[in-house]
Amino acid sequence: MAELKVKFVGKDLRSPIGVASHAVLNQGLSGAKEETDQLKMYADYGVGFVHTPFICSEEEHPKDAPPGWKFQHVRSREPFRMEGLLVATEARRIMCRLNAGLAMIESLRETLPDDVAVIANMIGPGADPQGWAELCHMAEDAGADIIEMNVSCPLPAATAKAVSSYSEGELSDAAGSLLGDSPQILLPVVKAVTESCSVPVGVKLTPETGFPRVVGLVEGIKNAGAAFISGINAPITVGPPDIYKGGKGKWVGMQENPICAALGPWDRYLLYRNLGAISLFVPDIKLAGIGGLVEPEHIIEAMMLGARVCELSSGLLWKGTGLIKECLEFLGDYMDRQGYQKVEDFIGIGVKYIKPVEEIDWRQEDFIATVDDRLCTRCGRCANNICLARTLAENPLRIVIDSRYCIGCGLCQSICPENAVSMVEQKHPVVGISLDNA
Ligand SMILES: Cc1cc2nc3c(=O)[nH]c(=O)nc-3n(C[C@H](O)[C@H](O)[C@H](O)COP(=O)(O)O)c2cc1C
Ligand code: SF4
Ligand code: SF4
Questions:
Q1: Domains in the chain, please, with CATH?
Q2: Which end of the chain has fewer CB atoms < 10 Å from its terminal CB, N or C?
Q3: CA distance 282 to 267
Q4: ipTM, 2 decimals?
């Protein structure tokens, strides 16, 4: 039987799959027994760690901000089908208040087995290193095994106030992703927290920090004493306007189109970018994968790119808690089938294949496309795009490949709806390299 245990930042976890930090929908329940019980239930399903929702340093809920989130499901037609959720709310409504959050940490630590880590997700006071240090220290005192600095929440950054204060070089109190994307302010904050806490501290990245800036940022975070990087949090976006209603927003019950956050499958490539880049360029910091992991296979992909643990987020909103069980069972079966005895056997094994483009051996003259006439329905899709090597029109019964022009790029194979195209190894001339001699 495969062994799912994993060591993460010095802590022995019973499995590498956990649940991401999730603020609840109703602010009245934030940090309440119901929410704590929900996290305990995740543990009953077999996760190796749970996160608190983001805990802030304030005690009172803002009186002028009623509870509330809005979600919107965005889908595209075939063949794109890039589905995801958009979410909008005013962040200060939903942060877990300090004492409720600390009580939640205490209760979780008292109840959960030792090999299920309690990760405190903290959203501190803007750019104030001391305030952050005190807040995170309180979470440690309450029993948190690991501190995760949430410097990446998109929601506080989606305000007009954030835009104006940022352009003036200042950050508002709950700065969210603005803090995470401002290295000169972030790094002293991280240093203050790592110096005040004795449990491992990690930083949850915002996808607003792109490649290659993320590499320098992570190097700085590591030097500031952080033990791990998690992320990504959700990117900021704007929902599609309703093209049949004069461009209004499509959100339930309102016309406005708020600046919002994008969740789900589309986040995964931002996560993989970060995992790949960090594993390659800052290999000695530990990684937790979160963002767009909505199928069991995604967990293994992220781990092969260097994540030691993985977190489920909007996948759970879509599929429910059954996704935890599905992922754990799949992981065990997969490891048995592949002959991996422990997760260490495959963590990071994909990293050695990640290369900057100038180091790739493209082998374009070694492969050529072929079509299986039994599967091809002559839909014409592959002959009706930018490839000049394929034609349907000349021969309505068959797709014809002109081997002089094929560069073995794989486009036709990627877009064929019938899986009728294969790439076969065959030396052939490539335009621009050897056509003149063909
Ligand atoms: C309802 C909801 C609440 C969230 N609350 C938090 C939070 O309190 N702290 C945090 O760091 N991230 C929070 N997130 C972000 C998720 O942890 C995760 O980073 C994000 O959903 C991207 O992952 P996904 O693409 O798998 O959804 C929240 C996400 C959702 C959907
Ligand atoms: S896309 Fe596939 S099914 Fe359609 S014509 Fe090309 S090979 Fe045939
Ligand atoms: S592999 Fe690329 S170049 Fe060759 S036929 Fe397909 S799309 Fe055209």
A1: 6-353 (3.20.20.70), 361-438 (3.30.70.20)
A2: N
A3: 22
A4: 0.95
Between 98-111 and 33-44, two packed helices, what is the crossing angle to 10 degrees? 30
The 10s digit of each residue's pLDDT in 332-384 is 999 999 999 999 999 999 999 999 999 999 998 899 999 999 999 988 888 88
Cβ neighbours for 177, distance < 8 A, ≥ 6 positions apart:
151, 152, 153, 154, 156, 157, 206, 208, 233, 236
Is residue 204 in contact with ligand 1, taking CB distance under 6 Å? yes
Helix runs in 305-359, H state only = 314-319, 322-338
CB atoms within 10 A of CB 182: 19
Ligand 2, atom nearest to 412 Cα: 1
Amino acid making up residue 231: G
The neighbouring-strand residues paired with 150 are 204
Q: Please, what is the angle between helix 129-142 and helix 98-111, to 10°?
A: 40
For residue 95 and ligand 3, the question of a CB distance below 6 A is answered with no
Higher pLDDT, 286 or 438: 286
Mean pLDDT of the chain: 92
Please enumerate, as own/partner, the contacts of 168-173 that have beta carbons within 8 Å and a separation of 24 or more.
170/127, 171/126, 171/127, 172/126, 173/125, 173/126
Say if CB 383 and CB 420 are below 8 A apart: no
What residues form DSSP beta bridges with 140?
none
From the CA of 261, how far away is ligand 1's center (Å)? 9
Residue, of 115 and 166, whose pLDDT is higher = 115
Q: How far apart are alpha carbons 109 and 126 in whole angstroms? A: 28
